[in-house]
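Today's session is about reading a structure prediction critically. Students often jump straight to the picture, but the first step is always the sequence itself: look for stretches that repeat, for charged clusters, for runs of hydrophobic residues. Only then move on to the predicted structure, which in these notes is written as discrete structure tokens rather than atom positions. Here is the chain we will use throughout the hour.
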Amino acid sequence: FALAAQDTVSNLFGFAVIFADRPFMLGDIVKIGDIMGTVEELGARSVRIRTFDKTLVVMPNSQVASSTIENISARTVRRVSTTLGLTYETSADEMEKIIEDIRKVVTEHEKLVGEDSVVAFEAFGDSSLNIRIVFFVKELGYADYLRVVQEINLALMRAVAARDLSVALPTRTLYLRQDVSGE
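Below is the predicted structure for this chain, in token form.
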């Protein structure tokens, strides 16, 4: 009986902490531990979260209160970080020009926070010259966010094609050495 009471008191205390801090509200999308979904109910004993695959997860308040809570709904923007790899046939001058073209794409798009965008020649990869592209999407709804990312990706493809450059594919070059001894 004492153990059950201890669990109940712990969950009530967790409820009080959640209620006082208000890290989320009903309807918010949250990530608590490994669980991500929409908050459906906040009770005295537990929080009910509906995951994106429609599973209902019931988490004890004591566990919620002691976990790191990420409130996805409280985001102001969504961050996108991607790498565009160009072939090693790309010259330094062509690289500078395509970087400027990409910067223009991510700074002038109406659904992006342009001043926080980053475009830089990041690395000499195994099979490509890698350009790091980081931008922030203003659209918070997932479908709208994906639509904007698609628009940016298509604009990047068009910019690469307009410069007559090529996106690199993973490749390996094999050099065969001819035996000069004749044996």
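Discussion point for the tutorial: The mean pLDDT is 89.
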